[in-house]
Amino acid sequence: MTKWVYRFGPGHADGDAGHKNLLGGKGANLAEMCSLGLPVPAGFTITTEVCTHFYANGQSYPDGLKAEVAEALKKLEAETGRGFGDPKNPLLVSVRSGARASMPGMMDTILNLGLNDETAEGLAKQAGDRRFAYDSYRRFIQMYSNVVLDLDHGLFEEILGSLKDENEYRSDTELSADDWVAIVAKYKDAVKAALGRPFPADAHEQLWGAVGAVFASWRNPRANTYRRLNNIPESWGTAVNVQAMVFGNMGETSATGVAFTRDPSTGRKIFYGEYLINAQGEDVVAGLRTPKPITKAWREETKEGGLSMEEALPDVYGQLVEVYKKLEGHYRDMQDIEFTVEKGRLYMLQTRSGKRTAKAALKIAADMADEGLISRDEAVKRIDPHSLDQLLHPTISEKAHRDIVCKGLPASPGAAAGKVVFDPDEAAELAAKGEAVILVRDETSPEDIHGMHAARAIVTARGGMTSHAAVVARGMGRPCVCGAAEMRIVAGEDRFTARGRTFKKGDVITVDGAKGEVLMGAVEMQEPELTGDFARIMEWADGMRKLKVRANAETPEDAAAARRFGAEGIGLCRTEHMFFDDERIAAVREMILADKPAGRVAALAKILPFQRADFVELFRIMGDLPVTIRLLDPPLHEFLPHTEEDCAEVAAATGVDAKALMDRARELHEVNPMLGFRGCRLAIVYPEIYDMQARAIFEAASAIAEETGKAPAPEIMIPFVVSRPELARIKTRVEAVAAEVAKETGRTVEFQVGTMIELPRAALRADEIAEEAEFFSFGTNDLTQTTMGLSRDDSGKFLGAYIDKGLFETDPFVSIDQSGVGELIKIAAERGRAARPGLKLGICGEHGGDPASVAFVAGLGLDYVSCSPFRVPIARLAAAQAVPFQRE
Amino acid sequence: MTKWVYRFGPGHADGDAGHKNLLGGKGANLAEMCSLGLPVPAGFTITTEVCTHFYANGQSYPDGLKAEVAEALKKLEAETGRGFGDPKNPLLVSVRSGARASMPGMMDTILNLGLNDETAEGLAKQAGDRRFAYDSYRRFIQMYSNVVLDLDHGLFEEILGSLKDENEYRSDTELSADDWVAIVAKYKDAVKAALGRPFPADAHEQLWGAVGAVFASWRNPRANTYRRLNNIPESWGTAVNVQAMVFGNMGETSATGVAFTRDPSTGRKIFYGEYLINAQGEDVVAGLRTPKPITKAWREETKEGGLSMEEALPDVYGQLVEVYKKLEGHYRDMQDIEFTVEKGRLYMLQTRSGKRTAKAALKIAADMADEGLISRDEAVKRIDPHSLDQLLHPTISEKAHRDIVCKGLPASPGAAAGKVVFDPDEAAELAAKGEAVILVRDETSPEDIHGMHAARAIVTARGGMTSHAAVVARGMGRPCVCGAAEMRIVAGEDRFTARGRTFKKGDVITVDGAKGEVLMGAVEMQEPELTGDFARIMEWADGMRKLKVRANAETPEDAAAARRFGAEGIGLCRTEHMFFDDERIAAVREMILADKPAGRVAALAKILPFQRADFVELFRIMGDLPVTIRLLDPPLHEFLPHTEEDCAEVAAATGVDAKALMDRARELHEVNPMLGFRGCRLAIVYPEIYDMQARAIFEAASAIAEETGKAPAPEIMIPFVVSRPELARIKTRVEAVAAEVAKETGRTVEFQVGTMIELPRAALRADEIAEEAEFFSFGTNDLTQTTMGLSRDDSGKFLGAYIDKGLFETDPFVSIDQSGVGELIKIAAERGRAARPGLKLGICGEHGGDPASVAFVAGLGLDYVSCSPFRVPIARLAAAQAVPFQRE
Q: Do A782 and B795 touch (CB under 8 A)?
């Protein structure tokens, strides 16, 4: 019989950290902490399988669940010595979601469940604090009404606001016990008025309502968005954790806090966290009150007022230090912990691997390897390759003039400039149009996720380093400044003021997330430093990986960047980019307009010196490293003007006949250019084009040989091949050109002729094609387009709907469709190597910089990936992680 | 050691009819005739392997060939008692090409080889006829100069013309021996002047020149065109036949002729042929002199003047009748024979299976099966399915008014109307623009092939039933009238006159190939009769085949035609064709312009009654037969106007906003619509569309049930699927609509939901997809486009070059690319059936009517093909032929 409920409590637990899939991250870690003997309030976890069953069976629960929950509750009552719904000695519980992967802020939490008019009185007596009891009761009504009964927060804020106004209270702390009693009554009336039925008083009814709400929230739009952004499958489901309440709001010896075992922003080995005296956890996370540092050192460093926990509650602080060290040592990773202190007694509510910036991740991994806590291989595996992206982009130049708009907390590093936008929807809209925007908010909430993702950076006026904005921004790699209290956002007027200046929507600012500063205008940026922890981890990664990493580059700038980022060659040099240059396009058009081979040859002769110079420069930069040059690929109409106006303009500027230009453009126009007259097809009909390009390559290689004494060995790549004969025909001509050039220059250049595998037929006929091709490079962009029948230019109209509805797990242009496109790659690799043992195989295109795709092709035994220069380190790391892990 | 040369002669032969691949058709049959003891001049065949070697090794001959030829020549000299190049007793030979498949008129022939100034004198003495000897000599110089030395015919015609003019001769027969001697001298001077070297006098030099020319001609443009049109691989190569000369031009007891053992036009069992007294073979084939009937009966039937061979040479005629009967009995097929009578002695020069019209093929096959010569299975296999096309198109209506332009020979049956064109290039150009043209020529030659192929019909002023025009037209299935002597074409003026009227280029005429008449204007046509031999053979074919044949049809007319042609259901009903109707397009556009589901639902509700009525009619016509309905497939922009003018026009006509229309058209515009927002993707984003279509289908089926008591069981086909989840999602909605309609009507309709497999990913994931799909229909058009990266709309720019250069064997849109697209079909069939045993599999699209494709999918064990109604009989026959042959 399936077990649906897993219990945990001090010194015992049904599960452990290995049960993450079943119990969710939170539940599994609560169980683990219990087994470690840490102080954890007792409770139980309803498994993720219940969630799966719930959705597979029309939102109904499995047989036996109710009985198991009842049994677990009974044991919880025994363990705590309290009764669920017992007016005299009430057991209160929290109900929290807990998915397999951490989804901060996405799921809903309910505290103080089990309160009603009777148990509230019981709690008051028990705690000896009527004010606390009714404050807890009103919080519960508020939370439950919002999450379970779907009522708006505003309903309650209005009631509370009126009472405060009547009494001229400035803060909640001024409300008396009687005030809270009155508030509770008004809250209940409001719920009844809104729903037509009373707020549920029965504890069990409350519990099942909360459990249902947690499961329902697994598919709410915020959760869907988060999952989509983070590639979390919907099928995983969430667990529900029911846990006896402990209270951080039972007076001045009570507190609640969150901490990281190392600094999640920089990775420094310091205990780092925030706490609030006399508060419940929601007060910290929501950023409504600004919490204080836990350690004295950090308080002094930040020059914050008030006492640190180390100073205010030294005993409990001492316990907490012991606990955090134990947890980090046990989990062998930086932990993000939540705790509550109830009347001087420490309770652990959560531990999990802490989210961190890329920079921190590198430092923590390198430090832990140095400390001997983990191996260097493990250190490499600890870094999310995606996260490196944050480090590989510019930061603010040290020489830049900094006109400070305002300061706040350095919540997420990196820098970005953009236009101020206040509304998340507007941010998303403008970003979709290609605008760089900075989202500026008082504070953020899960509803804002899409706008945060669309923004280049985020600024909030309120909230701390662990506020929603800070946590989410770090996860997304967006620079973020939090709690910029100098900033005053004028609601409804699309402007903010700071230090006496006013900024309107659309004004450009720069966010320096590393320093916690907002700057005026678009400030000069500087290149990232690729040294220190980054360089060490990358060196370890390079030592592990088998897959080579090349870059896609055609300009000298890109080639230089590629070398800087550690590329081991150029995997794709697109020669057509060289055709668009102003100096050359006239000759290119002349070639296209020529109606006889002789005319084309004459025009191509004008392009030759430019193309040769391009290659000379590229070979010079790349030195000994391999360079794969793809001969002309796009359809010729891409080089012609298309409208009558454009034709007239070009005609006037160059002296060609406007009508001839327009006629030729019309003649070459294509209904589906992706499947058209392009790639090697051009060379079959107009062989002169590749002849010229081959000549430019061989002449350039000879020139380099002249210069350095050593000729580079270019890899000449023929695009859009579907069969052996077409490749054979072109290869023969390339070889003939090589022989001609060798005769002219007296130098022999070694070279290879290979092909792109970018059409399903080429993948299927890879055996034949490999008889001619000396290497294959999978053009995964086009292979995805043809295999899936998906035009990259057009799929935007429905791809979003496909991903939202779970029809595609990920965007197939970002991460290789492994079961479709991937199978073709596998077939081609196998057949190609069977025909030509040792055939060199690589991929080029966007997927070469996608970690999942890199892992996939590493698994297939490919030789290299090639990606844009900025993604080379990501690919290097992903390639190392793809090597099967060996624990030392 | 490879044997390069195979000898044959009376009573002996190295090879036989089974060696066609090695010796070519002509060589193999010459050997076979020798073994049968028929009178064949001795000779030898240089094998096709020499041709293959020749092209594989830079046009050089294999080692040992020269020695083998010398040896064979020595034996030929011994057998004939003559010496090659011997001035006293010269051996003359013919040199002819002979490919594996008959390629009439494509390859070059040289007669009388071995003649020079000395051997000509020898021949004169030997034959006792100096005039004959020098006539033969000048013919040889003419032929050899043209074929081997590449000199123009005109050079010689001018010399001959001048001499005739000087002497006021009207015909060649008036030239004396001395005249021919003078002509020969002038011919040789002309050759020397043109080439700078004398005409080769050495017999061996002549022979090797001729052999080289035959091999070279294998790749001349005419041969390439013929091979392309007839799907003959270039790799086959040609053999060369060297044979002792016999002379049909040695006086009144000599003759030459060609004959068919049955009438190749109608299939009637009569001996049928033409001959010329005192002529060489070239005179008959070239159509320069009009030959006479061989039999008396035929002469009387055609009311021609002169004597038949039966009357003029009764003894030899008797021998010939014996020979033809022996040959037909031996080969068990209608034979096309060539013979020469030298001074009363019969020599057989060739036998081969005779080309015939489709009608004749059916009659001959059916007759031979009735005669017991072949089995019914063999009869079915004898019919080229492509050829049925001729029979399945209209002929001239019996009631039509016939205004006769002129009469000629009924050279190839069928009828067609079109514009008069005199130039083959112009015919090809106009046809490419979609014009129906009739090619009118004095006579045709191999250079005209492309124009003949482009024309709907062919008319020649000269030439007989076996002239080039007649043979080629029959092979191509083009109606043809030959030897229309009443017609006078005015060279260079683009007009002809006949019976006192003048017809200019562009005037419309109708050709009745069956009657041999050219008619004024475009005459009324009638439907083909599908009875008689056709019906008998089709019935036998239906008894043999396992593959079902359905039709692609959506209109009542097409559905009715489908049934008439024997379709066993509809395999593809394209519902979008129903959307374009004038009455509906406004609602379709309203649907596309709606920005909310409710707006789309309202617009779709207007289309529903039309769509339902369509299906009611279709179900009614198809009765019990299955009907596969494909839900909406094309991108929505196809239903919108595209230019501003069109938008304004539609706006004015329908009252919608022109700007909204244009904006929406722009928004929906696609770079690659083939890979765009179409097929099931529409239904994922706009599920209302398929909901409406499903409702229309179920309501129509219910209405038919009401009418007939039996509901049809529609097969609902979802296009452009790439994965299981998208099909599952749509299937669920279709089932929901079915349940709704069942509830409303109280009738349950049985139905299946299946999918098109038209994208490589769908083929690869066929196992998953088959878990949802109840049938697969391979959309081979789109599967070809995506697998090969080949847009059907755009590939015209290079597909011709690919086929000409041998890079594609055939047009992949005509015949399935078996090794690429075909492998995906195979994979999908295997995986689909593994997941769902008995899964119904079919193909729809153009390939369903292509015999090679039908044979291919029959081999894969598919259940059915679906093609256009007119091609259904072709598919039925091809399906029967795909069944492995069992000799009774």
A: no
